[in-house]
Amino acid sequence: MSVDIAIDLGTSNTRIYVAGKGMVLDEPSVVTINLDTDDVIAVGNEAYNMMGRTSQRLSSCEPLKGGVISDIYLVEKMIKIQLGKANVSRIVKPRVVACIPGEITDVEKRAVVNSIYSLGVRSVSLIESSKAAAMGAGLDISSPHGRLVIDIGGGTTDIAVISLGDISASRSMKTAGVDFDEEIIKYVRRKYNLIIGKVTAQAAKIEIGAVVKPEVDKTCIVKGRNTVTGLPHAVEIRSSEIFEPLQDIAISIAQQVQDVLEEAPPELIGDIYKDGIILTGGSSQIFGFDQLLKNHVKLDVHIAENPSSCVINGCGFALKYIGQQEVDENGAVNPLSMPY
Ligand SMILES: Nc1ncnc2c1ncn2[C@@H]1O[C@H](COP(=O)(O)OP(=O)(O)OP(=O)(O)O)[C@@H](O)[C@H]1O
Ligand SMILES: [Mg+2]
Which residues contact 240 (CB under 8 A, 6 or more apart)? Predict the structure, then answer.
């Protein structure tokens, strides 16, 4: 039996979708290896739980950076194990849809395609993540109506105006969730002489992070090592003290959205003016981003339902376009492209 599958190899999370079933796996894109033997010890949730806690012999690494593969060997191992966990490896020679960021070099694209072909699949079709995000947010991208969709993930932000299945204006930035985490790490070190890990910073961001000054000031305790004494230490941090560095990142994204709006054809801008902007991706949930963007571009901004799953669900919906004609009878472009 052959069933088609979709794969979203995200910087932070790997997601797998099986036709007829929906999303079957959603786990961190992390691999733990034994440095002596190069053996993979753990992937996904298990590997994430070991991050920053491994001995000298083990290392937990993230084989994707800025939305692209930085270690193809580990990515191949990771997907193979994840497909096994999700019971997908029993599917014989599936056809696969995989998503890629909007701006990606041919070499980076080939790395994605080769890592998926290494699984023994029948074919690989690619889709830009903003098109997948739009479909996963429930939009009909084949209509002539213009939409502005933003996907803010862990390593990339994709901004695109879409109509008739195609992109009219876009930007892809390597600024996203991980940058918020890094700002928190830098701030805590500067202000409190405390070194904290990536997992702690990410948890603090989700708990108290904000990109506009919050009315209710939330607090959380972060633990790490004091740079002066070298000893374990904990401090309480507040939303109101970390929002400024986080806001700078959000403003840089809002400026790129403005650039895309300036480039988009006027008829499509009219549609976007009416409908507003759709936000997807895990990082679209950082407190206040929708408000900040609304103030910046003076348009309505809506966060999609289940923003983290929009891209994989959209890749799943796009399975129906495999093998379809490039342009349909209404002039809509097939959102899938063949890699070679
Ligand atoms: N409630 C939340 N508030 C703020 N950030 C969040 C929240 N939930 C998840 N995130 C962040 O979203 C990011 C992951 O989003 P997502 O799963 O869309 O990324 P990805 O698809 O793996 O990455 P990319 O598309 O950039 O390659 C992480 O940085 C995570 O910390
Ligand atoms: Mg993503």
Answer: 213, 214, 217
pLDDT of residue 340: 63
pTM: 0.96
Share of the chain above pLDDT 90, in %: 93
Distance CA 117, CA 114 (A): 5
pLDDT digits (tens, 9 = 90+) for 211-234: 999 999 999 999 999 999 999 999
From ligand 1's centre to the CA of 17, what distance in Å? 18
**Sheet-wide strand order for 13-18:** 22-28, 13-18, 5-9, 95-100, 123-128
Q: What is the Cα Rg of the chain in Å?
A: 21
Say which amino acid occupies 79. I
Pocket lining: 114 vs ligand 1, CB cutoff 6 Å: no
**Contact predicate 209/184, CB 8 Å:** yes
**From CA 317, how far away is CA 312, in angstroms rounded?**
9
Both tokens of residue 83? 């497909």
Is residue 67 in contact with ligand 1, taking CB distance under 6 Å?
Answer: yes
Which residue has its alpha carbon closest to ligand 1 atom 28?
154
Helices (H) and strands (E) in the chain, counts: 10, 18
| Domains in the chain: ranges and CATH | 5-132+317-321 (3.30.420.40), 140-175+249-307 (3.30.420.40), 177-245 (3.90.640.10)
Under a CB-based contact definition with an 8 Å cutoff, are residues 11 and 153 in contact?
A: yes
Cβ of 285 closer than 6 Å to ligand 1, yes or no, is yes
Q: Which atom belonging to ligand 1 lies closest to the Cα atom of 287?
A: 3
The string of DSSP letters for 12-49 reads SEEEEEETTTEEEEEEES-EEEETTT--EEEEHHHHHH
Region 61-79: mean pLDDT is 95
pLDDT value of position 156: 97
pLDDT in the model for residue 338: 82
DSSP E strands in 262-314: the ranges are 277-280, 301-303
Question: 163 has which bridge partners?
Answer: 166
Three-class SS of residue 127?
Answer: strand
pLDDT band at 90 (very low <50, low <70, confident <90, very high): confident
CB of 170 closer than 6 angstroms to any ligand 1 atom: no
